[in-house]
TrEMBL record:
This is Lysophospholipase. SUPFAM superfamilies: alpha/beta-Hydrolases. It comes from the Bacteria. It comes from Streptomyces phyllanthi.
Amino acid sequence: MHVLKVGPREADTVLVLVPGMFGAANGFRLPARDLVAAVPGVQVWALDRREENLADRTGFATADPAAYYLDGHYRSQDPAASGYVAGWGLRLTLEDLRAVVLAAGAGGRRRVVLGGHSWGATTALAYAAWDFDGSPGYRDLAGLAVIDGGVLGAFEGTGAPVHDSPEEIRRRLAAIDGGAVFDLTLSGVGLGGRAESSQIWYQLAGWYAHHAPAARSVLQPRLPDALRLPYPITNAALLGTLVDAGFGWPNDISVHAGRLAESGDVRGWIDDGITPLSRVAAAYAGPEPAVWEWYWPSRLSVDLDITDAYADTDLSRSLGLRLRHGTALDIPLYAFATSYSHGTVLTAAGRVAAASRVPYATYESDEGMNHLDPLFAGPDGNTMTRTLSAFLERVRG
């Protein structure tokens, strides 16, 4: 596993962050910088799950990344040769995460606050409730920080139902056994049908927008017809058309960045939102071009859906999920919600606190943000980093 570390090594408190679905560590680089600048004594670690090793990112070191990826020169992970990924579910993810948490804690010399974004928040809460051979996960932690995700109905307001009925689980597990080891949700964006197609397009768009923002778009002629504008645009503008909420993208994959220039031989991008496009591009470009995870295991999706119940049930036990300690949590909780869930993220966090021994909880929201804005918004407009900073200061005492 790779862990991105931002902030002073001598920090007495480490915030360990878990990316959401299709997310990778570099998506936390910018908010991590803002958090450590705001709270002396805090270091931020961001985790890349083991499946990150399946991605071929070498093309970004070539002279022509677009040709490397779009002309098929990269190493694609063949699902037919990836049967071992069928077992990469929540148990393995939490075992990996615990190695990171224990390293961050340095044998009890540092406090560890565990958090995550979206399904990363679900993962963090699962860790806290997990039974690690008789040791509850929450005992490794000084606090929890869930960002736009969670359990107990956190995602109800998004309109995306949790698929966790026994019949659905049996069907999904049968599909995995049949070779569908990678989740193809992002292929619905319209940028290709492979597990990694959309992620490659997003990373390429960010790379060119960072390295040559005002130049005529390298990628525009290669876009699918349905996504190609009828006039030339810059590299920055092309990234904007793929990530900005103004172009009709769903809340869970968009930000509030700005708008296209209304005129010009080659139309550029105008920042007038809380998330400057240059910050999105900088995160996408590196130093490691890893904001999107290419190969999300289908089994992890199954397990995280089951985790929504946040209980030790017959179904969870049948899949080896050790969610035994959710009602025993005795550490502080921070929860942040954007417009994504229409309030259910905070309602669900309140259920977690009410059903446990959480000593205090902080609930914050910003309806002006979309799901990805907390990862890229500028520090002046990022309600999440501002309020999470205050929570971390309180945990530190």
